[in-house]
Amino acid sequence: MSAEATNPEARSEARPELRRRGRTRLDLRRLGRAALLGPTSRGRLPDAIGHVAEAHRAHHPDADLSILRRAYVLAETSHRGQMRKSGEPYITHPLAVTLILAELGAETTTLTASLLHDTVEDTEVTLDQVREEFGDEVCFIVDGVTKVEKIDYGAAAEPETFRKMLVATGNDVRVMSIKLADRLHNMRTLGVMRPDKQARIAKVTRDVLIPLAERLGVQALKTELEDLVFAILHPEEYEDTRALIAAHAGDRDPLPAIADAVRTVLRDAGIAAEVVVRPRHFVSVHRIALKRGELRGSDFGRVLILVGENADCYGVLGELHTCFTPVVSEFKDFIAVPKFNLYQSLHTAVATPEGYVAEVIVRTRQMHRVAEAGVVALGNPYATVAEACADPDEERVDPTRPGWLSRLLDWQQSAPDPDTFWSVLRAELAQDREITVFRADGGTLGLPGGASCIDAAYAQHGEAAHGCIGARVNGRLTSLASRLSDGDTVQLLLAHDASSGPSPDWLEHARTPAARIAISRWLQSHPDRAAATTTAARAPLSVVGARGGGGNAVADLPDATVRLAGCCTPVPPDAVAGFVVRGGAVTVHRIHCPAVAQMRSVGRTSVAVHWRATADCRVTLVAESFGRPHLLADLTEAIARQGVEVVSATVEPPVEQRVRHTYTLQLPDATGLPALMRAMRDVPGVYDVGRA
């Protein structure tokens, strides 16, 4: 059952330009049988592909249709006598697939390959014949589609088949486009198969092909595939949703009146815009019903506003939020920050005086084309055919290939077995958000939402990331487990010890397949090292000298013992506060220390504190460093050269090749603290020194 049959309003609204021309539904059975009656007159397009030519010329007025005629003639003659299980001539299938792509705006090369996509697989036509007749570019795409044809039925559940599909289609995103259109037509005609076979094919479509369509931005295919899968795998919920939509059709729909009000507002503001109501497809209505419970009339669709320029989008947004009551929580700006699949739009929601809440989408017409067709709308991704196809066996770099697809092609080579590949593929496709982080050298990394510094390390350095021991995010030192946000700047710190490796804990924080596979492989090949990292931590090494008290801090409380707080180690001229603790002693904190608020909250007595005129002071410093021999000796020597006394020192055992040193120091003059910290940072291997 097709989405066009189940939700005709949504389909016609999705392609308003076709509805305006009044094009009738294409009867592929009739055209296919007409095609068998014989060729048309020489030089004229066969009637069977007239609809394809019309749809193609709507997007590409200057397109040369002669190659389509030759491709159709070859496809029709080679498939002549073959029938589909539905009883239609087989030529109706490549015709339908090509028409789907033509309506999405695919360029001529893609349509030519689409017409021929089953000839090499199912007829005596060879790739050499396709190359000789139509060129290397068409041949490359047809070959890519041919390699994944077995995914449809018998081998649908085999993970290794999907690995082959990914490699074959990843070299040219147009192969994926044809594959998705091919699956859509097969799903439309799936009713002739046994229920168990329908369910198996629908599950594969749900698990892999729909997420691929989402990531390629081909929303027009994705939404119809979702509805078809929904009808097969969840027939009861599908029927309930269809009944819900049918019941709504008999009620007064508030969205047309809201759209009229929006048109009036924009016309008065002098903004040229097209305002239409887009009904939701079945799965969307079902999700909204699960989220909100009882649905209101405005929940069955959304208002779409199309304008000419990017600036007009924000002008429309201002008028909407001025003349209606905006729902602030529903606002999303996908123009300033596009989604990973090229999608750009402004999303908002407004409330009307009658109490309806209408979701509104604002985009330019070009954004609308890309939102509906995704990579199909980008045309030929290669500059010249000669450069792209110089070596058919060499992997080609596709400038339209999304970052997530490049990552999949990279890590699939390292996946140890098909089952691991299948699990990580589904996990990767389940990610619905992508972030961009900046490297310290000015480059960028594309990562899935929720990625950590570990993922960034493997994305940037590959297996060299085994030696990563830390990172700076936006200039601040952080752990490798820290999650990254869109726009963060990441500087990764690598150990000088080439034998260092990851910890098993890294697997808990790694999100990308590349990182997880690389970490798992290293741990499997180094079982002794992996076990050593999980042993209990040793007690820190401490070196304690003569302990002092409050330094040169004086409390306005006679005979009271004064102690400098170890949590913040105040030094002159820090602003300080004192509190009486058990035993009558006064603890001195920096005024901004978190412990000050805690002391006040529990009712500790506050005591005024000031510094003596003497310049000496006590401070606790923490040094973060790479592990290496003689590091402790070099640090204490650097401290001694500054004329500073070590009161106590604690050295924690190495963790991921990092060592943390904590020193309590007696300085003869507080003004020498900056110079001391610089001297400690200059010690080789030390990358950060700060006060406790």
Descriptive overview:
Residues 1-43, 151-157, 383-400, 534-539 and 541-548 have low confidence and may be disordered. 45% of the residues lie in helices and 17% in strands. It is an alpha+beta fold. Helix 4 packs across helix 7 and helix 8 crosses helix 11. The strands form five sheets. Strands 1, 2, 3, 4, 5 and 6 form a six-stranded mixed sheet that branches. Strand 9 (468-473) and strand 10 (476-478) form a beta hairpin. The N and C termini lie far apart (67 Å). It is built from 30 helices and 22 strands.
Number of strands: 22
Q: What is the mean pLDDT?
A: 77
Structural class: alpha+beta
Radius of gyration: 34 Å
Report, as a whole number of angstroms, the end-to-end distance: 67 Å
What portion of residues is helical?
A: 40-55%
Overall, the morphology is: elongated
Helix count from the secondary structure assignment: 30
**Strand portion, in percent?**
15-25%
Largest sheet at a glance?
6 strands, mixed
Model regions low in confidence, pLDDT < 50 over at least 5 residues = 1-43, 151-157, 383-400, 534-539, 541-548
Features:
17% strand; alpha+beta; 45% helix; 22 strands; disordered N terminus; 692 residues; 30 helices; 6-stranded mixed β-sheet
